Every structure is written in structure tokens, then in C-alpha cells.
């Protein structure tokens, strides 16, 4: 029986960054021996809350009580010393060191002479890995092993601290099905030993299989806390997205028109059954000329992974890709650009803009090979192009030589769009094109996307906003756990249908019939 007195209580936690409120009155309570799910879309505040708990960030308000004592950790090492271990999605170990050194880093056993006791360290590491059903040479450098093994080593390190609370951030992202079940066995073992686990994840099957309760976050706030078995999958999705199950779509919430676009029969791009490890497990999508196809799904469903695979940024294990009815294999983004594809990534600051370069340099980055001869850029031609697109997209800038980092988010996004439009593409892949920008810029970009489609450009648009997908798309393809589970024509769009397709554990099909999605056959 799980005790009723919390092991961890975080109340009224607040945190701001310049121009952004990351947390506002966020709460989290975890019981001893409980597996507690922490869920929410990008920007919900999950990572910030965890970093405040572990001392990576300083909180601006609120209280934290752990194991009966009020705490205010100043660094992750301090939290670790008090019994809180964190396993991050991005493995933060040292590849050139041995497996044993990584497990015992900072607390290496020593003999009576003060020297490293390698025999004991190797033996203890092997014992910890045996709990995870892993048998490897622990004296080998960590980089000799694949990502799944490295993830298990990170878990073994957490177990070595005899922690009271273990935080797992997307722990299954690099594991196959057998390894996931092994991990779940370890979690159940920890639970039996009254060790609590905070499980940050997005795969609904896994959440419902292993978690006792769930905390749902949205926009830096705790929205709801309840037992997993008291919340249906569709209800969970609705709360994460901020929707009511009875919502009826209202027109006019975006700057897209209410009418369909005039797509022709020409298929610009088609992907069939793309697979990649556990990230993509049969993703299919097609885009016609003059068509806007929305790509829907929860965080972790494989939306961005599909976009990156289509653009040659990530390799695939299997599947087929066709551009204008010709089968292609993009080894690099340069191959996709050659085929007249453009891609605006989700994180424009990390993967899109080069902050210390100018607007001019950022805008013409992809075009440089055609503007340069013998390594010298034709500056007059470059300037003409930049002036044209600054004017055409109404980019608010002090001038082409202004550093792009000084522009607003909406104007940075316009520069990225201009980067591809100056290449005269036939298809644009837009991953969250209006995220994090003001209402005015958002309306301008939505209107521009629609204008491009009217002129015959194909658009694949990823968005977490259901209204944007419903009002802006001619078709919506729904992904769940890396797999295409529905392809819906405009006549069948509704928030309820989309949420049901995102949430339900069911046999995937790509039918357009609404009744199939609603009754779990899609």
C-alpha cells in the first residue's frame, strides 16, 4: 500500500526568464513508492520544474519539501547527495571513460592506500547492470556501446546512489521493446522498495502501463493531478492541449480562410512506411501541389522526426520516399534542397537562425552556392534578393546587416521562410511555423502560407495548435508513437476526432472515415 504522506511536495513554484514566464504557481506532489507521470506539451514547464527541484535553476517563489524537510538545493550534486537522482533523455555521461568510471564518477571506491579500487568498482558495476539484464565489459569505454546501452548505464548510475526519488526524463526514447520491459521491471522493483519515480514521458501506452498518478502541466501551471485510471486517454490529451471534450470548432480563430485550397492531382512528395529505431514505426504522408497537409500528434508522436527524415537530416531504416513520382533517397539536406524542398525547423534558435550573422547572411544561406563563384559571393545579386524578400514579407529590420538575433521572433521566422522562398521550392516543410511569435506576426505568416499554397506550392505543416491545423489544412495526417494512424479530409475535421486519433490505442489505418477514428479503428 502506498503511504499517504508525500515524499516530495513542490507548491506555488514560480520562475521567469527574460521575456518569458516559465512557471507560474506550479505544484507537484509525489508519494513514496509511487510512479508519478509528469506530462505536458513543449513549453509546459516540466523541464524547468525538474531543474528547480534538482538545483539546476533557482526558484523565484514557492516551497519544496523533500523527505519531511524544506530544501533549496543549489546544485544537482547537492540534490543527489540528499537522495534525488535524475536520468536525462540526453545522456550526460563521459564517452571516453569506462562504463565503471561513468557509474561511479565522483564516488569511486578506493583502497587503503587511497588508490582507485578497480576490482571493486568493476564488480559493483557488473552487479548493478545485472539488475538491468545487461552483460557487457564494464572496463570498455562507454562510446564502444550503442545509445540503448548508454541509457542503461545512466540508469545503473542512478541506482548506485540508493536514491529515495529517481527522475526519468523520456527514459525509453532509445530503448527497444525488450529493453523497455526490462526498465519497467526495474521501476516496479524500485516501487516495491518504496523508491519514488517521476516519469516524464509522452507515450500514452507506457504512461498507462507503469504510472500510478499523473500531473498535467500547461503554460507553466499545474492543470490537474489524478490517478491514471481515473482519466481516459482522450481526456488526458484534451487537458494537455487545453481543450474541452465538448468543444465545437469556431471559425475565425486563425488567419486562414475557411475554404479549401485548389490542390491538383500532382503528388509532390510521398513517404511510405518510414521507420527509424523506435522513433518512426510506419509513418506515411503525401502532399499534392497547392495543398496544405497538417501533421498532427502529441509531443513524442514523431512529427518532427518525420520532417527531419523527409529533409534528409536524419537517416531512416526502411521505407520509401518519392518526389514528383520519382523514388529518391536523401542522404543529406543538400539532396533535399537539390530536389527543391525547404524546411523550417521547430526550434528556430537552435536549428534555424545563426544568431550572430546578419539578416542578409541568414536569408541567403541556402542560396550561397548559386551566388558564389570561385568562393566570391555576387554581392549585388545577393542584396537584390534580400531587398526583395524583406519587402515582400514585410520583415521589420533596421537593415539587411542587422544581426538576426536582434529581431523579434516573428521577424526571425519570416527570414527563415524567405531563406527557402528565394530558392524557388516546390514544397515547404514547416515545423511549428507560428510558435512563440506575437499575434500580428502569426497572422501574417498564416496568410503567407495560404498565399503560397494558392500559387501551387505544397506545404507540410506541423502544429500543436488544433485550430491552426483544422482551419489551415486541406488534409490532416495524425501520428501516434511514430506511426500514421489516420488521414482525414477537410470535411471530417473536428477537435474531437483529432484528439481521439492522437490518444487511442488501436489498430492504425489511413482511412478518411470519421466513424473509424471515433470508434478506435483508426
TrEMBL record:
<dbReference type="InterPro" id="IPR050107">
    <property type="entry name" value="ABC_carbohydrate_import_ATPase"/>
</dbReference>
<dbReference type="Pfam" id="PF00005">
    <property type="entry name" value="ABC_tran"/>
</dbReference>
<keyword id="KW-1003">Cell membrane</keyword>
<dbReference type="InterPro" id="IPR017871">
    <property type="entry name" value="ABC_transporter-like_CS"/>
</dbReference>
<protein>
    <submittedName>
        <fullName>Sugar ABC transporter ATP-binding protein</fullName>
    </submittedName>
</protein>
<dbReference type="InterPro" id="IPR003593">
    <property type="entry name" value="AAA+_ATPase"/>
</dbReference>
<dbReference type="GO" id="GO:0016887">
    <property type="term" value="F:ATP hydrolysis activity"/>
</dbReference>
<keyword id="KW-0067">ATP-binding</keyword>
<feature type="domain" description="ABC transporter">
    <location>
        <begin position="263"/>
        <end position="506"/>
    </location>
</feature>
<keyword id="KW-0547">Nucleotide-binding</keyword>
<keyword id="KW-0677">Repeat</keyword>
<keyword id="KW-1278">Translocase</keyword>
<dbReference type="InterPro" id="IPR027417">
    <property type="entry name" value="P-loop_NTPase"/>
</dbReference>
<dbReference type="GO" id="GO:0005886">
    <property type="term" value="C:plasma membrane"/>
</dbReference>
<keyword id="KW-0813">Transport</keyword>
<dbReference type="InterPro" id="IPR003439">
    <property type="entry name" value="ABC_transporter-like_ATP-bd"/>
</dbReference>
<keyword id="KW-0472">Membrane</keyword>
<dbReference type="GO" id="GO:0005524">
    <property type="term" value="F:ATP binding"/>
</dbReference>
<feature type="domain" description="ABC transporter">
    <location>
        <begin position="8"/>
        <end position="244"/>
    </location>
</feature>
Amino acid at each position: 500500500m502506498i503511504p499517504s504522506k508525500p515524499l516530495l511536495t513542490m507548491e506555488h513554484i514560480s520562475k521567469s526568464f527574460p521575456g518569458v514566464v516559465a512557471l507560474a504557481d506550479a505544484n507537484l506532489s509525489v508519494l513514496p513508492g509511487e510512479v508519478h507521470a509528469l506530462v505536458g506539451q513543449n513549453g509546459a514547464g516540466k523541464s524547468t520544474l525538474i531543474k528547480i527541484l534538482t538545483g539546476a535553476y533557482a526558484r523565484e517563489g514557492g516551497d519544496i519539501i523533500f523527505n519531511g524537510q524544506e530544501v533549496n538545493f543549489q546544485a544537482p550534486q547537492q540534490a543527489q547527495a540528499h537522495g534525488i537522482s535524475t536520468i536525462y533523455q540526453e545522456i550526460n555521461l563521459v564517452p571516453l571513460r569506462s562504463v565503471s568510471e561513468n557509474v561511479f564518477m565522483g564516488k569511486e571506491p578506493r583502497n587503503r592506500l587511497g588508490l582507485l579500487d578497480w576490482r571493486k568498482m568493476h564488480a559493483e558495476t557488473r552487479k548493478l547492470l545485472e539488475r538491468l539484464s545487461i552483460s557487457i565489459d564494464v572496463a570498455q569505454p562507454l562510446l564502444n556501446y550503442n545509445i540503448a546501452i548508454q541509457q542503461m548505464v545512466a540508469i545503473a548510475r542512478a541506482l548506485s546512489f540508493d536514491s529515495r526519488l529517481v527522475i526519468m526524463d523520456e527514459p525509453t526514447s532509445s530503448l527497444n521493446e525488450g529493453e523497455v520491459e526490462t526498465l519497467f521491471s526495474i521501476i516496479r522493483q524500485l516501487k516495491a522498495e518504496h523508491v519514488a519515480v517521476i516519469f516524464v514521458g509522452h507515450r500514452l501506452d507506457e504512461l498507462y502501463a507503469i504510472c500510478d498518478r499523473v500531473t498535467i502541466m500547461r503554460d507553466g501551471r499545474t492543470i490537474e493531478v489524478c490517478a491514471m485510471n481515473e482519466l481516459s486517454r482522450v481526456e488526458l490529451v484534451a487537458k494537455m492541449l487545453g481543450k474541452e471534450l465538448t468543444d465545437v470548432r469556431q471559425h475565425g480563430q486563425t488567419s486562414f480562410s475557411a475554404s479549401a485550397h485548389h490542390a491538383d492531382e500532382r503528388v509532390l512528395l510521398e513517404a511510405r512506411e518510414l521507420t527509424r529505431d523506435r522513433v518512426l514505426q510506419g509513418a506515411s504522408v503525401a502532399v499534392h501541389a497547392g495543398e496544405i497537409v497538417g501533421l498532427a500528434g502529441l509531443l513524442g508522436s514523431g512529427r518532427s522526426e518525420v520532417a527531419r527524415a523527409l529533409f534528409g537530416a536524419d537517416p531512416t531504416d526502411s521505407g520509401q520516399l518519392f518526389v514528383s513520382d520519382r523514388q529518391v533517397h536523401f542522404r543529406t539536406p543538400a539532396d533535399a534542397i537539390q530536389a527543391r524542398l525547404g524546411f523550417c525547423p521547430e526550434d528556430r534558435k537552435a536549428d534555424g537562425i545563426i544568431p550572430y550573422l546578419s539578416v542578409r547572411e541568414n536569408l541567403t544561406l541556402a542560396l550561397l552556392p548559386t551566388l558564389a563563384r570561385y568562393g566570391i559571393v555576387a554581392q549585388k545579386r545577393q542584396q537584390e534578393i534580400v531587398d526583395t524578400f524583406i519587402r515582400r514579407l514585410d520583415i521589420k529590420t533596421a537593415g539587411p546587416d542587422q544581426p538576426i538575433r536582434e529581431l523579434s521572433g516573428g521577424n526571425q521566422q519570416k527570414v527563415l521562410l524567405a531563406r527557402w522562398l528565394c530558392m524557388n521550392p516546390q514544397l515547404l516543410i514547416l515545423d511549428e511555423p507560428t510558435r512563440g511569435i506575437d499575434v500580428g506576426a502569426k497572422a501574417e505568416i498564416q496568410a503567407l502560407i495560404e498565399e503560397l499554397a494558392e500559387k501551387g506550392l505544397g506545404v507540410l505543416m506541423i502544429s500543436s495548435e488544433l485550430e491552426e491545423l483544422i482551419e489551415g489544412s486541406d488534409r490532416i495526417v495524425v501520428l501516434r508513437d511514430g506511426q500514421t494512424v489516420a488521414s482525414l479530409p477537410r470535411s471530417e475535421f473536428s477537435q474531437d476526432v483529432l484528439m481521439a486519433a492522437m490518444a487511442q490505442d488501436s489498430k492504425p489505418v489511413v482511412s478518411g472515415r470519421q466513424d473509424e477514428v471515433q470508434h478506435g479503428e483508426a
